[in-house]
C-alpha cells in the first residue's frame, strides 16, 4: 500500500445545542478531516482535537501544522506493509497524538477499502454486531433543563447517561437526578475539575451508586487517582491521563482506576487503542469508547473500535442528530429503539460521504503528493 496523496480539510459545523464541560462551552466544531489516497482508492480519518488546547495540548490549528509539516511527509510516498506502519513512522513526533491519530485512522480506512472489507474486520474487531450506546450530557443552564434532557435521551433508548460535573455542579445536582431517575445507569465526568483536597466531597458521590466517576483529578496524574480510588467505593474511570498502553499498565498496577475510557485520538489511533484494550482486558478492567463531538467520520471509526471484545460498557457513540442538523456522512449514524447502533458490513468505515455538504462547510483545504 503506497500513500500517493494526502488532503487536509478544515470544516466548521454548528452543534444543534451547546455542549458545556468544566473547560467551557462549545457551540460549533472546527474539525480536520484527513483523506489519504493510494492504489486507486481513498480513506478518511478525523482529527478529534478541540478548538482550544483545554482537553489536552492540541487544538485544530496546531494539528493542521503538525500534519502538514511533520506527520504527512513521513508517510507520503512510503510503501506500507499495513496501516500498522503509520504509528512507528510518526512516533518520534512527541505528543500530538490526535493529529497523528487522524492520519493513522485514514490509512486504516484505506487499507480496509483496498481489502474490500469493513474497517472493524481490518482492525480485528467483530465481537458484537450492535454497539450499546450511552450519551454524554454537558452542564446545563438549570437542573430542570438537565432533567428534561435526561428524560428525552432515555426515551430515545440510550442505555447509560453520563453527566458532566464540576465544583458547584456536582453533589446536589446528582442528588436531584437520582431522585428523579433512581434506577438508570448513571456516571459523572469531571474532566479534571477536582484535586485531592476535594476527596471528602467526591466521597459523597458514593451514595448515588454511580457506574463510575470519570477523570476527577489532573489530566496528567495517575498517583493521586490511586490515592483517591482507595478512599472511594465508586470506581474511577481514567480518560485524559491514559495516552498509551504503558499508562494503562501503570494505572492498573497502582489501582488508580477500575475502568478505562479509550478515545481513538487521545491514544494516537487504532494501533495504540488496541494495545490499551488488550492491557485492560488481560487485567480484567472493562473499557468503553469515549467521544469528542466527532462528525460522522470519527463517529464511524468509534463504532468500529467498539466492536473489540473488551468494550463491554456503553460508550459515548450516539446518533448523529444529537449533535448535527446535517452530518457529513450518509446515512447519518442512527440508533435503534434499544439504544444500540448496528455495525455496517460495507467496506471501510461503512458510510458514504456527503461530499457536497463537506465542500459547503470547508473553510480551508490543502493537499500534498
Q: Could you walk me through the main structural features you see in this protein, from its secondary elements to its overall organization?
A:
- Helices cover about 30% and strands about 20% of the residues.
- It is an alpha/beta fold and about 375 residues long.
- The chain folds into two domains: about 5-115 and about 355-365, Enolase-like, domain 1 (2-Layer Sandwich), CATH 3.30.390.10; about 120-340, Enolase-like C-terminal domain (TIM Barrel), CATH 3.20.20.120.
- It has a seven-stranded parallel β-sheet, with helices on one face. Strands 3-2-1-15 form a four-stranded antiparallel β-sheet, with helices on both faces. It has a two-stranded antiparallel ribbon with strand order 4-13.
- Helix 1 crosses helix 3 and helix 9 (about 245-255) packs parallel to helix 10 (about 270-285).
- The protein is globular.
The spatial strand order of the largest sheet comes to 5-6-7-8-9-10-11
Query: Can you identify the CATH superfamily of the largest domain?
Result: Enolase-like C-terminal domain
Q: Under the CATH scheme, which architecture of the largest domain would be assigned? A: Alpha-Beta Barrel
N- to C-terminal distance: 15 Å
The largest β sheet comes out as:
7 strands, parallel
- What's the overall geometry? globular
Note the total helix count.
12
Poorly predicted runs are: none
CATH class of the largest domain: Alpha Beta
Q: Can you tell me the number of structural domains? A: 2
Q: Give the radius of gyration.
A: 20 Å
Instruction: Return the average pLDDT rounded to an integer.
Output: 96
Query: What percentage of residues falls in helices of 4 or more residues?
Result: 25-40%
CATH level-3 fold name of the largest domain: TIM Barrel
| SSE pattern | EEEHHHHEEHEHEHEHEHEHEHEEEHE
Structural class category: alpha/beta
Amino acid at each position: 500500500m503506497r500513500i500517493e496523496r494526502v488532503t487536509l480539510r478544515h470544516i466548521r459545523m454548528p452543534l444543534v445545542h451547546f455542549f458545556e464541560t468544566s473547560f467551557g462551552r462549545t457551540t460549533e466544531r472546527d474539525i480536520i478531516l484527513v483523506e489519504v489516497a493510494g492504489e486507486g482508492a481513498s480513506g478518511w480519518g478525523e482529527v478529534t482535537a478541540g478548538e482550544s488546547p483545554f482537553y489536552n495540548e492540541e487544538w485544530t490549528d496546531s494539528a493542521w501544522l503538525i500534519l502538514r509539516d511533520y506527520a504527512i511527509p513521513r508517510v507520503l510516498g512510503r510503501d506500507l506493509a499495513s496501516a500498522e506502519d503509520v504509528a512507528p513512522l510518526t512516533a518520534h513526533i512527541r505528543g500530538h497524538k490526535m493529529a497523528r491519530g487522524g492520519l493513522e485512522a485514514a490509512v486504516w480506512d484505506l487499507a480496509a477499502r483496498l481489502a474490500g472489507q469493513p474497517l472493524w474486520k481490518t482492525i480485528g474487531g467483530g465481537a458484537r454486531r450492535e454497539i450499546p450506546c450511552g450519551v454524554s450530557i454537558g452542564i446545563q443552564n438549570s437542573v430542570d433543563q438537565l432533567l428534561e434532557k435526561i428524560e428525552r435521551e432515555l426515551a430515545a433508548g440510550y442505555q447509560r447517561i453520563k453527566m458532566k460535573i464540576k465544583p458547584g455542579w456536582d453533589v446536589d445536582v446528582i442528588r436531584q437526578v437520582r431522585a428523579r431517575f433512581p434506577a438508570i445507569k448513571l456516571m459523572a465526568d469531571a474532566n479534571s475539575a477536582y484535586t485531592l483536597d476535594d476527596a471528602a466531597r467526591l466521597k459523597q458521590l458514593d451514595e448515588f451508586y454511580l457506574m463510575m466517576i470519570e477523570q476527577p483529578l489532573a489530566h496528567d496524574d495517575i498517583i493521586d487517582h490511586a490515592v483517591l480510588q482507595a478512599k472511594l467505593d465508586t470506581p474511577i474511570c481514567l480518560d485524559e491521563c491514559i495516552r498509551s498502553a504503558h499508562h494503562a499498565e501503570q494505572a492498573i498496577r497502582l489501582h488508580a482506576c477500575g475502568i478505562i475510557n479509550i478515545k481513538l485520538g487521545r491514544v494516537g489511533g487504532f494501533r495504540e487503542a488496541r494495545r490499551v484494550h488488550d492491557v485492560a482486558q488481560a487485567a480484567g478492567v472493562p473499557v468503553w469508547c469515549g467521544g469528542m463531538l466527532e462528525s460522522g467520520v470519527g463517529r464511524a471509526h468509534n463504532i468500529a473500535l467498539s466492536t473489540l471484545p473488551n468494550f463491554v460498557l456503553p460508550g459515548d457513540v450516539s446518533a448523529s442528530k444529537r449533535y448535527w442538523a446535517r452530518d457529513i456522512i450518509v446515512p447519518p449514524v442512527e440508533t435503534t429503539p434499544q439504544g444500540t447502533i448496528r455495525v455496517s458490513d460495507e467496506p471501510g468505515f461503512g458510510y458514504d460521504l456527503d461530499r457536497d455538504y463537506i465542500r459547503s462547510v470547508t473553510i480551508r483545504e490543502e493537499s500534498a503528493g
